[in-house]
Design brief:
By secondary structure, this protein is an alpha/beta fold. The structure holds alpha-D-glucopyranuronic acid. Alpha-D-glucopyranuronic acid binds near residues 172, 173 and 215.
Amino acid sequence: MRGLLLLLATLGHAAAEDGLNAWLRYAPLPNDVRDQAHIPSTIVTLNSTETSPIYVAGQELQKGIEGILGQTLDVTHETSESPSIIVGTIDAFTAAGGELAVPELEEDGFWLSTKDGAVEIIGQNERGALYGAFEYLSMLAQGNFTEVAYATNPSAPIRWINQWDNMDGTIERGYAGLSIFFKDNLIVSNMTRISEYARLLASIRVNGIVINNVNANPVILSDENMVRLGKIADTMRPWGVKVGISLNFASPQTFGGLSTFDPFDERVIAWWTDITDKLYEHVPDMAGYLVKANSEGQPGPLTYNRTLSDGANMFAKAVKPHGGIVMFRAFVYDSVNLNENNWKDDRANAAVDFFRDLDDKFDDNVVVQIKYGPIDFQVREPASPLFAHLRQTASAIELQVAQEYLGQQCHLVYLPPLWKTILDFDLRVDGEPSVIGTDVLTGKRFNKRLSGYAAVVNVGLNATWLGSHLAMSNLYAYGRVAWDPTSDPEAMLRDWTRLTFGDDPDVLDTIASMSMESWPAYENYTGNLGVQTLTDITGPHYGPNPQSMDNNPWGQWTRADANGIGMDRTVWNGTGYAGQYPPEVAAAFESPDTTPDELLLWFHHVPWTHALRGSGQSVIQHFYDAHYAGAETAAAFPRRWEALRGRVDDRRFEETLFRLEYQAGHAIVWRDAICDFYANVSGVPDERRRVGAHPFRIEAEHMQTTGYRVTGTTPWEVSSGQRIVQTVGNSTAAVAETRVPEGEAFPRGQYDLAVAYYDLYEGKASYEIFLNGESLGKWVGDLEDRLGYTLTRGMDGHSATRVTFRGVEVGPGDVIRIETLPQGRETAPLDYIALLPPGVVD
Ligand code: GCU
């Protein structure tokens, strides 16, 4: 009996998976594929001790091969005559008598050969050998048994992760639960998840991590935390991942008890030197520090009239004797005094303005970490011009895997196509090729020793790491892009999909096509033509709130009014930002005739009727068309995913379906909010008469209700018809009822029945919908438990959502009735119901 059960368990098509193993599942290949694999029967690890990446590589190879091919290989340290899988550094290999004629390996690089029945995985260093082991396993896991022999080197030495984890265990801009690193102002003592994270990072060749928020709490420097930091470093070291921390510039005063944090004060310097020496006692190979200074309220050297380089160099000198580096963020701007009434004020100018004259002032172990665009991780930005100004100072790009402004992992948005717009951009410094990925960040263009990548990731305790299975392709691709910025987004995606979901061609094609369409779709239904994301910039950065962009000192202005929209960043008439680029690029951005359409409103203030270069369409009509197109793409996602039912294990299938359904609904919230808002601002109607016209909706405020009252939302444009209903009290049941209109509007047939409502946190209202007295289904307003976006308390663009019942048979005169029970602050708010004939997205 037990045998039978076991058999059934292994035969079960797709065991439920929680996502914890991400792309390192080592799932068994089908038998016919396995049969084609001819691999050596021993793994030889050269010079490995239990804490070395080589040892880990041996264990990982053993485990991976067992899972993928069902073969149990021995791991030894002894080389022999018979073919083996040999893993080691080039030095160890040569010392063991191996001969290798390989192209030159750089730091972290490796050689992989599977020729002649043997496998050679030889790293320039131990870390490189581990990367090679993961590469080999990735081939096997994808059923790729071709003979290869090649060397590969990283594009840049710095390939880091930033986590914005707070000491209390929350994560700033984290969408997947609490921190794996901190709890109650202490570093955690259980290292399990940290070790698992290090394993994932090693497999994508990430070699450093800063574990705490850039808005740093000095308590990370407590004695107890230093000891525990040592434990984290010990846990991650075997995976080749070095640990660093973010510092708070004012720590000498707020934590050390000094009267100042002036970087020129001897006591301050001594304090930091002492702290740094102590840290290195616990973490002898600490990667270094990350510093956010004089930005968004953070303290910094400007407080004492010292320059940013004075501040950075103080830390650089402290870590220098230990071999550490200082990542100093270029995200410095004044968020208090910018004034939209001044046509020339521009936050986008800040980084170059602050750093331009400091280029020869930084110590050689300072790396300026520059966000990809000049503002803040928007759906579309031009590349930061600062990359062209730092010729002597080491620099790194900052990307964001956490989808802060890009749907917070509740929307599928595959990011590499966005990153590519930056990495492939040629700044033409001195009229010569200066492509950001291949020339600048490799250090080649300006002969730099240090350069590279950092990505804000913000994984949490959720088993999926990022809150969404599909979002993990972004983390995977980040590592590959940092290794090789010319990596093809779709090819990376297909590798990731095979590793994560297996090689069913339908699964591969569906995930590849949806993901490749996802960022363009998101841009379409959020902010177009370089106007930025149009989300709530003073709040959660999630749902639509275009008016939040203007009339405040945050400097993310659209300058939209009845006449036009866009920031004039020209030199001749605007903020001068275009002139921060080298002359060829500056000249192109100076005129709307030579600015790419997708950045038109970033660089120019134009009338709503301005014709786009590409389509000839007006700006406002493009807004409308893009929003309708984007929402249609998102509406198709759940249907396309649904076709994979049974081909993906149930758990990951259902969890993904749930998010895609949610996204389809929220894309319509976005579409309508942005279209209604700009129709109102511009006064220009949609040529195709879709905006504001919803023939398939029945507004809740027009339904017959008991226990409900008519109210509105803030902002107004996130409700259909500018009105909603919410219950009168917060504990008494309520009802909204309507009769499907008689006449031609809704001939009897199959409809998708959507209900638009608001899901607040601090309460779980319950809903049940009936058709002619028969229940169609129930739901509860519990998105706060099921999705990870930043929560708000109101009926707004974040809480607006929909639920859809597919294929419901409806006809004239039928009665649709929703019975609700409010709870807490959640007053069962309803916006409308929609009866959608097949193919209609509204
Ligand atoms: C954004 C983000 C903040 C973060 C900041 C930064 O503004 O919303 O949460 O602190 O960037 O990168 O420092």
